[in-house]
Amino acid sequence: MSTLRKWSTQVWGKLSDIFYRVSIKQRVLLSFILLITLSISAMGILTYRIAGKEIQNNAFAASRETVDKTMQLLDYRLNDVAMSVQSLMLSDAYRQMMLDVQAHDVTNYYVRLSELQYVLSQTTFNEPMIENVLIATPIGDFYSTTQVRAQDNSFYGSELYDNSKRNPGGYWAKGHYDRLFTGNQRVVSFVVRGIYDYTPITNVFIVVNLRENRIASLLGQNTAKNERQYLLINKEGEEVVQSSWNPQQDPVKDPKFLQDRSKGSEGNFFYTSDGEEYLMNYKQSAVAPDWTLAGVQSKDQLLGQLKGIQRTIIIVILIFLLTTWFFSNKLTAALLRPLFKLSRLMRRVEENQLSVSFESKYQDEIAQVGFQFNRMMAEIKTLIEDVRKNEEGKRQAEIRALTAQMEPHFLYNTLNTIYCKSVMGENDDVNEMILSLSQMFQLGLSGGKDLIPLEDELSHVQQYCAIQQKCYEDLFEYQVLIEEEELLSVPIPKILLQPIVENSIQHGFADRRTGGVIRVRIVLKDSMLHIVVEDNGRGMDAAKVEQGMRKREVSKKGYALVNIRHRLKLYYGAEARMELSGEAGMGSRTDLWIPLSPLGGEEETYGLSAG
Question: What is the CA radius of gyration of the chain?
């Protein structure tokens, strides 16, 4: 006991020494901080517990309501698909086709195929989710001639047919690659046996394919970005459409999830994956009973308001602490105020705020140090301004040099195209191409400006495509999709999009004669202009192109991309970027992310809100 008493005496003595050495200013400050922290914390904990329970109940109810509305929307669209099939079977063209099937008469196959075209086109027009429709019969398949049938794949030899025999009343198939039509798209299929009032049941089936990504997009209409994910599953626990939510352990494969789902057509429970808890709300489809929609939402996101209360309490505590600190310092720091002021100015200089200045009505020794500080800062700002002007001049010169490299390359290709037409004697086309070239030059010169409105850049590309379409007739279509008309006024570097479009024509469509599509999409996202140029050409190895661009071992295609990337960096710095993607045979895509203002420009958003 004596040893413990001795140790306690020593510790208390050391604490006493520290307390006696602390200044009065620090004692007052610590006393206020301790008292206010205890009182505010007690109030915050009580408020948190009372409000937390109510917020949690409201959040759970809102989550269930959102899942119910999403399932109702999906059922409504699926029901429209089913009604479209019924309307098809009530048409006169379908009735004549069924009579031929009953009689095994193939002589009028092409007549019936032609008669069904209007009905099939009306079906896909009335329900945009429908990608294509196939009527499989013993006398041949009937489908819209705007679709290309994969002749090697018969419906009667497919898994869809096997499943339809086990589900005579019709069934909805999960997402799969469409083997009945070319394109290899992922679709969700509705398969039903074709019947008619005056004919017996025959081996006729109607296959309606819905684009999988349209259903996935439909599921996301009632949720904010990154707030909730939906899983549409069948009775085997398999996903009907592919989803992006994929924790390390898949909840739809969890026996507990399937067990709870089997207790009723709807419900909810909590599921833990990788240490994080999720709320699972599910509801069974009324149109496709084998399908169940599960809403997966992080509990932390669901109870986000509780975190807001926590943050508010912490902010209130900090405000009171800062207030206490402020008034405590006011009482004791009057004599040291000039030094404190000079110290604060020096800290602001460390944060690159070079416009600071020391002011004082006194002429004492401390004030003289402050005035010397002002003279030093004036000399530093003069030196920085000289360096900035020199760097700006170098950057502008490099930008103009890169732009000048693009213009002769483009002019050579264009004049070569006009020459080919002239030799062939197509003078009308030559006249139109020369007029388009003249308009392109007018837009390209742009009065000597380096930045031009997006509208002028799109016009520049439009004129270029008009010239190329004269040379390569029926080779490609050019489309522009823009989210808001206000984006047309945003300035961008000139001759930015034409080299990318030229790459699609010269390289992407090199092995094509028809069917090419070049699409330019423009949206405002995250306060940046997002431009997407994509084609359906033979694609490219994006990794190989990126590697070549880094090594400067580039082809003409790669040279244009290096030039564009370098110009973007000079105009906008690290904020702008260019991303390449594509696979062999699947087309290529170029994404440009451009800030609304270049380096050194004014903070101007052109009337646009942050995307």
Answer: 35
Residue in 122, 125, 133 with CA at minimum distance from that of residue 91: 122
What local confidence, expressed as pLDDT, does residue 605 receive?
47
78 is written with which tokens? 């699926």
Which residue is it, tokens 């604490």?
Answer: 15
More confidently predicted of 275 and 603: 275
CA distances for 345 relative to 349, 369, 378, 383, angstroms: 6, 12, 14, 20
> Is residue 470 a contact partner of residue 421, using CB atoms and an 8 Å limit?
yes
pLDDT digits (tens, 9 = 90+) for 165-187: 888 778 899 889 989 998 888 99
Kindly report the backbone phi and psi dihedral angles of residue 373, in degrees, each rounded to the nearest multiple of 5, phi listed first.
Answer: -60, -40
Handedness of CA 524, 526, 530, 535 (dihedral sign): negative
pLDDT of the residue at 410? 56
Q: Which residue has the tokens 């190895």?
A: 541
The amino acid present at 542, given as its one-letter code, is A
Site of tokens 């001795």 = 6
DSSP states along 406-462: HHHHHHHHHHHHHHHHHHTT-HHHHHHHHHHHHHHHHHHHGGG-SEEEHHHHHHHHH
pTM comes to 0.45
Helix (H) or strand (E) holding 4: helix 2-21
Higher pLDDT, 183 or 53: 183
* Closest C-alpha among 207, 120, 214 to residue 158: 207
Distance from C-alpha of 407 to C-alpha of 393, rounded to nearest angstrom: 22
251-271 pLDDT, tens digit each: 555 545 555 555 567 877 777
Rounded to whole angstroms, the Cα distance separating 284 from 260 reads 12
Q: Rounded distance, CA 411 to CA 499, Å?
A: 11
User: Which runs of E-coded beta strand occur in 285-329?
Assistant: 292-298
Residue 574: DSSP 8-state: G
pLDDT at residue 168, rounded to an integer:
77
Does residue 589 have a pLDDT over 90? yes
Q: Which residue has the tokens 């994006």?
A: 542
Q: Report residue 460: phi and psi, to 5°.
A: -60, -45
SS3 content of the chain, % helix, strand, coil (to 5): 55, 20, 25
